[in-house]
Design goal:
The chain is an alpha+beta fold and 247 residues long. The protein has 3 helices and 11 strands. β6 and β7 form a beta hairpin.
């Protein structure tokens, strides 16, 4: 009787295939690790890359400007501008933005909140990733009445585009990021962050490597950082630079 010898690597491969057939799927996020995902989300949040933190500052400060200039209830304003990083900055960006704001009053005809949308298109380049993207921020800034202790932002931030890793250029492809901001509070009169939370999803594809998908939470701290949790791993994101550290 002929004896058949099966090489060890084939046995391991067969075992992996069997696991897949039994519903235990292999890791589909190996092309973009949890640490990579934290870098990508951090860059999309940071002020230095004109991310969510920068846009949140914009709309909150603009809301204060509406009140200071005594605009009428129901007034709508639009604005367009280009924002670019300073020469020699460690993180570079260039974005075109379009803003729309509507002032809403309460039953007593006192300014109560501002709703609106920011559309953006451009690119940024940091120490870990470069990205070209488009997206929008749909927002409501409440707490405009004189007795309200804080400005409060609720918003949905959506961004999609392409990315490339600087440490591994084979990791490049398409990304889609969605962040839902819940009760992000800003101090008065100077709008510094006083707390809030968010949830996010990050998905995308890398050619020849497949798809990746992550979801997690953000807790905004009062020291200019946010705690990012993804798949049980915790990172601290610097909202100015986008850089992360282990939580």
């Amino acid at each position: 009787m002929k004896k058949i010898t099966i090489p060890l690597m084939m046995l391991l491969l067969a075992g992996a295939i069997a696991c897949n057939k039994n519903g235990l799927q292999t890791d589909t996020t190996a092309n973009v690790s949890e640490s990579d995902a934290a870098d990508m989300v951090g860059a999309s949040l940071s002020v230095n890359s004109n991310g969510l933190a920068s846009l949140s500052d914009d709309v909150t400060i603009k809301s204060k400007w509406f009140i200071d200039n005594h605009l009428t209830c129901g007034a709508t304003k639009t604005d367009t501008l280009t924002k670019t990083s300073h020469p020699g900055a460690p993180v570079t960006f260039s974005y075109g933005l379009g803003y729309s704001y509507t002032l809403n009053c309460n039953a007593s005809n006192i300014p109560d909140n501002i709703t609106g949308k920011v559309n953006f298109s451009g690119s940024h380049s940091g120490p870990h990733f470069s990205s070209s993207n488009t997206g929008n921020l749909i927002f409501k800034v409440a707490g405009l009445t004189p007795t309200a202790p804080n400005y409060v932002l609720n918003a949905t931030f959506i961004q999609s585009g392409s990315f490339i890793s600087k440490k591994d250029t084979t990791n490049h492809g398409n990304e889609n990021l969605s962040v839902v901001v819940q009760n992000l509070k800003f101090n008065k009169p100077i709008p510094t962050i006083a707390g809030g939370t968010a949830t996010f999803t990050l998905t995308g594809t890398v050619p020849k490597k497949g798809a990746f998908s992550y979801a997690g939470t953000l807790v905004f701290n009062t020291d200019g950082t946010a705690k990012l949790t993804v798949n049980g791993s915790v990172f601290i994101i610097n909202l100015l630079t986008g850089e992360k550290s282990k939580g």
